[in-house]
Design goal:
The protein has about 280 residues and is of the alpha+beta class. The protein has three helices and twelve strands; from the N terminus they run H-E-E-E-E-E-E-H-E-H-E-E-E-E-E.
């Protein structure tokens, strides 16, 4: 074999070896890159899920970094001691307004959770004079548990919380109208419910009204309730609001996926009648 042919053959072999080495290195880099990116994505998803799940975690002060979720298209901050957050500059958003009384309770979803209650409230939707509220204690909304702590008014963390209060809609054991709500949320909502009740009684006007639970994923317990009210005849002069009530209990951490609770001793709100501190 001539020297020229030997050189050519050696050159071809070297090129082939270089090609194979390059291919192996490139494949390794691509595999590693994909694996690294996937790991980053998984970590990102995990962090996102963790943020959602612990959105109202009140177990320790260090968890109170700025965290928000979207409620009706608006960012709502994590609970920090105020029982509710004002939505849409407190302007209610109803798809229609009427002065004819009605009550509509949405069907339970696929997980048996309440969806939304909408009504046009008037003197005719309220309980009759002298009528007493019926028994609702056999209704067990999703996430219901008998959790008791001395730091809670009445000791029970959870109440069977009406979407539309009995004083306004005269609904008793309607499972489409009852959610697992904290004592704290239930008492804070009462202020608005009494305000609407007093307005209707004094003016005999109507109030458009809606309450919608806000659930995250497949959670059994809602993170809060979106409550809206608008007085019809005076076009909102008497009643007009749009607020999100946090379903929390100061001093208690809630696992919204199951309803389980745990005492933390962290009280971001000590002024509420729902909070008992010795």
């Amino acid at each position: 074999m001539s020297k020229t042919n030997k050189t050519t053959r050696k050159s071809k072999i070297n090129s082939l070896i270089l090609f194979v080495v390059t291919l192996v290195v490139a494949s390794t880099m691509i595999w590693y890159g994909v694996k690294t990116d996937t790991s980053k994505d998984a970590a990102s998803v995990s962090e996102e899920t963790s943020t959602e799940v612990s959105f109202f975690n009140t177990s320790s002060e260090e968890n109170f970094e700025e965290t928000t979720v979207s409620v009706n298209g608006e960012s709502v901050p994590k609970y920090s001691g105020e029982p509710y957050y004002v939505l849409n500059n407190n302007i209610p958003e109803f798809s229609y307004i009427t002065d004819e009384s009605f009550e509509d309770y949405g069907e339970l979803d696929s997980l048996d959770r309440c969806t939304k209650a909408t009504a046009c409230l008037g003197t005719d939707t309220a309980p009759a004079y002298g009528e007493e509220r019926g028994d609702i204690y056999f209704i067990k909304p999703t996430g219901w548990r008998s959790e008791r702590y001395e730091c809670v008014d009445g000791e029970s963390v959870y109440n069977r919380c009406h979407l539309i209060a009995w004083m306004l809609g005269a609904e008793n054991a309607n499972e489409k109208n009852l959610v697992t709500g904290t004592r704290y949320m239930n008492l804070e909502m009462l202020e608005y419910e009494i305000m609407v009740d007093d307005y209707i009684e004094e003016t005999e006007n109507h109030v458009m009204y809606s309450v919608e639970p806000y659930f995250v994923g497949d959670d059994a317990v809602c993170r809060g309730l979106i409550m809206q009210g608008f007085s019809v005849e005076d076009e909102g002069e008497g009643i007009s609001y749009n607020v999100f009530f946090y379903n929390v209990q100061p001093g208690i951490e809630i696992d919204y996926s199951t309803g389980a609770t745990e005492y933390t001793g962290v009280f971001l709100d000590t002024d509420s009648d729902a909070v008992i501190i010795d």
